[in-house]
Amino acid sequence: MKKALVVGSGLSGSSAAYFLAKNGWDVTVYEKEYRVGGHVKTAEIGDIKYEEYAIHINHTDSEDVVNLLQEVSDWIPYKHIVKTMVDGVPLSWPPQISELNKLPYWDKIQEELASLPPKPDSTNFETYAISIMGQTLYEKFIYGYTKKHWGVEPKSLSSSFAPKRIDLRQDDNRYLFKDSWQAFPKFGWSKVIDKLLTTYPIKIWMGKTIKENDVDWDAFDAVIVTAPLDEFLNREPLPWRGVRVEHEYIPNYIGKALPSAQLNYPDYSIPFNRKTETKWYSGQEEASGTVITYEYPDPSFKHYPVDDVNGENRTRANSLKMELKLKYPNAIVAGRLANYVYINTDQAILQGINAARKAMSSC
To answer: CA 349 to CA 361: how far, in whole Å?
Structure first.
C-alpha cells in the first residue's frame, strides 16, 4: 500500500487526503492546530451558523470540484451579491453603470470614463484601477479599502492580482461570480472538512507542527505540503496580510440585517473593511437571530500574500518551492499558504485533488 503524508488539514490538504484514501492509499495528516479545517470553520451562536474566519462561498466551473463536494455534503444554491457603502449608500460591487449614472457626480465619472486608455495600465495596482474606471470611482470604491487592507499605498502593490478583483460592469448582473455552480454547504464548512477526513481511513495528528527535519522522507511515497514553506523550511518569513474578525450576535432578529451578504466599507476613517452576514446563504433565513461579522485588517494573520510592485516576495516564494522540490523529489506543494497565493475555495480544493493525482501518477 502506498503511503502519503499530508501537512495541513485545510481545504487543499483535506481534499488531497480524501482523494488518496479513497484510492487505497495509507494517509497520515498532521495539523498544527487542535482543530482541523484551516481557514474554513463553522460555529454557532444561539443556533445561528456563522463562519469563524469570514465568508467562503464555493463557486466553480470544475466538474472535479463539484463531484468531490457532492460526495461529502448537501449544498444550498446561492449566488453571491456584494455591495459597497459609498457616501452612505450601498452600491453594487463591482460598480454598475446603471447605478452610477444616478449619482450627483455622474458627469465627472462619465468624462473620466470617456478618456480611459485603450488598455489597462499595469504599472501598479493603482494605475490599473484608475485606467479601467477613472479617478473618481477609484477613490470612492477602491482606494481607502485597499490602503486599509494592505497597510500601504496601493501604488506600491503589483497589478498582477488586480484583474481578478476589479471590474466595471454595465450588464446589470449584480452577482459577483459567474461560475456555473455556486453554493454553500448545508451544514457548514466544518462538516465538509470532517467528511473529507473521516469517510475513508485517515490517521490525523493534531496540535503538532511539522517541519522538513521532522519528516521521515523515505517512509512516504508522497509528502503533500500545504503549510507555509518559509515556516516549513525555517526560512525568513514572507509578508502576509490578514483579517481579524469580530462577531456580533443579534438575538430575536427576524430576517437579515445587512442589505447583502457582504457589505464593503472603503471609507478609510472606518476601521473595518467589511461586514458579512452568513444568514444570507446558510439556509436559516427564517431563524430568529443573526450574526454580523466585522473584518479588520491585521498583518498577524496569513490570509493574503503581499505582491509588491517589484515582485520580490513572489520571487522568494517561488525559490522556496524550487528548494523543496530539489531537496525532496517526493514533495508536492498545494494550497494558498504553501504556494503564497490568494485562491478561492474551489481552487484550493482543485489543488488538493491535483496534488493527489500527481502523487498517484508518480508511484
So the answer is: 18
Residue 213: is its pLDDT beyond 90?
Answer: yes
Instruction: Give me the residue spans of the domains in the chain.
Output: 3-40+186-239+305-361, 82-165
Query: What pLDDT does residue 195 have?
Result: 98
What is the DSSP annotation of 68-93?
A: HHHHH--EEE---BEEEEETTEEEEE
Q: How many CA atoms lie within 13 A of 331 on its CB side?
A: 24
pLDDT at 363 over 80: no
- pTM of structure: 0.95
Q: Helices 63-72 & 11-22, crossing angle to 10 degrees?
A: 80
Mean pLDDT of 36-42: 94
Average pLDDT over residues 287-297: 96
Q: How far is residue 332 from each of residues 2, 23, 318, 341, measured CA to CA in Å?
A: 15, 18, 13, 16
Cα gap 245→110, rounded to integer Å: 37
Q: Is the pLDDT of residue 285 over 90?
A: no
Alpha-carbon torsion (295, 299, 303, 306), positive or negative: positive
The pLDDT of 296-304, averaged and rounded, is 93
Name the DSSP letter for residue 213. Answer: G
Domain 3-40+186-239+305-361 annotated CATH 3.40.50.720: yes
Q: What is the dihedral of CA 46, 51, 53, 57, to 10 degrees?
A: -170
List Cβ<8 Å contacts ≥24 apart for 322-329.
Answer: 323/233, 324/212, 324/225, 324/229, 324/232, 324/233, 327/212, 328/212, 328/217, 328/223
Cis geometry, peptide bond prior to residue 90 (ω within 30 degrees of 0): no
Dihedral pair phi/psi, residue 305, rounded to 5°: -70, 150
pLDDT digits (tens, 9 = 90+) for 307-323: 999 999 999 999 999 99
Report the pLDDT averaged over residues 153-169.
94
